[in-house]
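A common beginner's mistake is to predict each chain separately and then try to dock the pieces by hand. The better habit, illustrated here, is to supply every component at once so that their relative placement is modeled jointly.
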Amino acid sequence: MRGAVNRMKMLAGGAAMAAFVFAATPSHALDITKMTLSNGATLLVSEQHQLPMVTVMVEFDAGTRRDPKGKEGLAELTARCLSQGTKELTAPEFDQKVDFMGSEVGVATERDYSTAGMTTLTKYQDDTLKLLAGILTEPGLRDADIERKRAEQVAEIKAAEEQPGYTADVEFVKDLFGDSPYGHPGAGYSDSVAKISDDDVRGFYHDHYKLGGAIIAVAGDVKADEVKVSLEKELAGLTGTVAPQAEPPPIAVPPGLHVKLIDRDVAQANIIMGSGGVARSNPDFYRLKVMNYILGGGGFSSRLVKIVRSEHGLAYSVDSGFEPGKFQGAFTIGLQTKNQSSNQAIDLILQQIREIQEKPVSDAELDGAKKYLVGSFPLNIERQSAIASFMIQVEFYGLGLDYADQYPKLIGSVTKDEVLAVAKKYLHPDAMIVVAVANQSDAKIKTAQMEKAADGASAQ
Amino acid sequence: MRITIFGNHRRLVSTAALGTLLCIAAAAPVRAGMADAVKAQTLPNGLHVLVLENHKAPLATFNVFYRVGSRNEQFGKTGLSHLCEHLMFKGTKKLGPEEFSQIIQQHGGEDNAFTEEDFTDYFETINKDHLDVPITLEADRMANFEPKDFDKEKHVVLEERRLRTDDNPEDALDEMVRAQAFVAHPYHWPVIGWFHDVDGLTLADAMAYHKIYYSPQNALIVAVGDFNGDQVLKEISEAFGGIKNGAKPPAVTEVEPAQEGTRHVEMQHAANLPAFEEGYHVPNLASADSFPLEIASEILSDGQSSRLYKKLVVEKQMVVDIGAGYDMTTFDPNLFVVSAQMRPGVTAAATEAEVEKEIAAMRDTPVGEEELQKAKNLEQAQFVFGQDSVMREAEMLGVYQMLGDYHLVDKYIDGIDKVTAADVQRVMKTYLVASNMTEGVLVPTGVLPHGGEGISSGELR
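With all components supplied together, the output reads:
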């Protein structure tokens, strides 16, 4: 195999990418059957009989937004510990059974929820489902396994911090969201994870892995009514609901560009800048989708790529995006450029933000954005895992089972005036958080204090 | 090593846990008997075309492979294949820079390209009703290459190198290990090229390179999707049939001499954790040893029940992550790689000693029947899972055709099934030995910890 990695991690990675799926749009409906289990869980099934395989994803209200203050990383650690066997099976016994079938079983966290998932050949669906149900209803959660996964997570965080982009993101998220549920990296910090006790993990499982109000999505070679019977049998015991979480106050970045400069021996400055965005339920979502595509979300069709990459050759990657969630998310622009180009790149970006706030976009830009957003939908629900995560998002964010049919209309009705209005309302070139991990002596990022100091020096 | 024209979008860390460690995809082989369903044609100008109907979803993928990669480059001009890939997006006699991608996007499609050691693949995935659009555009850039903004694009590529390699400890280490393992063969240099080489490339270099390698006789088209195969063959033939060939590309003749003794390389880099990478010279698909090597890599590191994971991650708890990788589909013999990133406080030397114990156990004792069967079951399952994407099907057909025959796809599972415990032991004894190993160790010089010194705050202008 090219690029050998542990398969569990691939599965986790697949699930972690899920939030991207609803960025795209349907052009044809997906047949979804909706049912309810006796414990209150919503079951969504999309029958896909072309291949002898099945994908199941179970959503729990156990995302990283549920992390307690000081114990950031608890949701992620709990998810990792859950796949370490059951009361009956030790972790190695569990792994042996999963691998012998060639199946994939794992639990992954996102900001808003966690997903326990499996992918298996149809012929092993019953046995694999039993294993998945086992770790959800009777997880082992043994002291030794928790200890190992905790140390592993701390080490992985230290490894991630080697990536300048990861460090920039962490600092940005802290500064923008502060104490709110989104204000920390999903994996936590090395010191906060180290402080999580075995009982914290068992308590988090106990409080958050409940199926009343949860969503189960199945895509694959199954019959909807038959899979309902199996799930009822295996998962009915997971009853109860999770207490709702209070919505955090709106994000308010005070006027000014608040810069955090992190000095590191790197060849490139890693810059992220942004402000408060929207929640997924915000009715401006679709207008923002179109506006952002034109500004920096649309690859080679976007203004930021055209200006910063193509015209000035300053970056390989530059983009902008909203990350709407259950709560208000962030708006960010990110790029990497050689240290010495930092100021020039920041200037070009600020100029582009102002431009899209001042002048209406062109007819061609509006038309191109709509055609891409509407037309590219089927590309994003091709694979079973993508279909399953799509169904979970549709249900979690209350988009409606006919979302696939509605989306073209929601995008299609956006006007140039609306694009201009949302650019004015949601972009704040004069009030943003800016984080730069760079070799600061080369980057020489100009801050107000430095300019003042420089002015003072030249006046004397 | 695969380098793309356009990077993935970022996600904030609050939404994706530890993305850098979690998101790597392996290309699994494709559906059994699929080669029989392929329609193949060779146009009079030598262009090979494969089309395969797949009615799973209302979309289609269109791939143009060129048999050119870093393997075809010369000392002093490394990175030319990858730069050429970038320039393919910078315009033709008819189109301006990036117009190619913009037109695809306006039709609801996505396009990208990647360069490897052996080949370059340009691909579009698009609604089945718009397949004519990539067909027309790809024919245009094969015939009418005329890139603009050369210097700007070169700077973009240099930024890409800083991002992927220079500021990425594991990639930087991999580059050094390969440069040490290959002395004579072009696998010696990285796909993206050495920084100074790339900086010195000229538009004339790229134009000459395109003329030699971007001809119909050196290309392969693979289309997979929800369409009528005969109709698509006809459209492709009309669009590409008139494109003329230049001189035949020169063959790559370098052969890597046998390695006689362990080679060591050390790299100091801004990092928190030590890491190592071991590369062993191994044969490719042309050898009967390729399938046993594939099984060996499965047994060593596929799944949490694999030997290296169980020993190093679970039992000894020495590493953050460990993996063994083998790709039998490289054009020339390449490396079987074992790599790991250590936990804090653990040395690479101690970990490598444990890894060697595991490798030695597989040299000394045949693997058990159940373990062998588990590896085969994993391969079979991944074979099916891999068919869940038209893009992956197209890529595998393309790779096997470039290796000689797309029918080889159908023989994959057979080859895996026939592997015996004695075969695995034989290849371990032959190839996974110290004298055939190049070992690279990353010595971390540290990065500033979060919240620590070196952070300053202020207001931007």
